Predict the 3D structure of the following.
Amino acid sequence: MILFLQILLIVTSVLLVLLVLLHRGRGGGLSSLFGGGMQSSLSGSSVVEKNLDRLTLFVGAVWIIAIVGIGLLIKLPGA
């Protein structure tokens, strides 16, 4: 079980880094490379940005659950 959580932690860590890099910052970020740079700054968040936010939050929640799970398994006696 701990091996599964460790692999899950590594995969979600890499995904989280990539998803955060895709977010648009003040200057445009990497998301402008994929067609996000054509929008004006006056328009609201696009559907793609909202879905990217949701996916980032979901992967972050899985990452936190994996960390807590590993911590609990390590503290168990006999683990």
Observations:
- The two ends are 10 Å apart (CA to CA).
- The mean pLDDT is 83.
- The chain is about 65% helix and 0% strand.
